[in-house]
Amino acid sequence: MAGGAADVAAAARELVLLHGARDPRRIVRAVEHVTAAPAPDAMVRLHTRWGVVRLGAAPRLEEVATDGEVLRAHLTALGVPVDGAAPRPPVTAAERAAAVGVLRRAAVRGYSVAKGTDRG
Fold first, then answer.
1. N or C terminus of the chain with fewer C-beta within 10 Å?
2. What are 57-83's pLDDT values in tens digits?
3. What is the pLDDT of residues 13-60, one digit of tens each?
4. Is 116's pLDDT higher than 60?
5. Rounded CA gap, 16 and 43, in Å?
6. How would you classify the pairing of strands 60-65 and 51-55?
7. Distance CA 80, CA 46 (A)
8. β-sheet with 86-88: strand ranges across
């Protein structure tokens, strides 16, 4: 990876991965190639629209959204423990408005998710 991302990941105490896909089946039990491995004692979490999964040697569902049954079912099929996951409250109107504000500011800067460019 260019730009030092592998060094940052290796030194991080906590690593947050974001999953923006619309289908939880894109989440796999194990990856076949790692380009930026975190430290062995780092906490690694995968955040999705349906919930939060703790990754590592013993992955487990930590938090599940009210509409997270699709994630729970998929993780169960992968053999990932899902019992004991804390419920995630629904997104509030204020949280949604804050997220929209961030996206609007990014658009003003010239960032395009579709093109993957940043002009500013």
1. C
2. 899 999 999 889 999 999 999 999 999
3. 998 998 988 899 999 988 888 888 888 889 999 999 999 999 988 999
4. no
5. 8
6. antiparallel
7. 13
8. 14-18, 43-47, 51-55, 60-65, 86-88
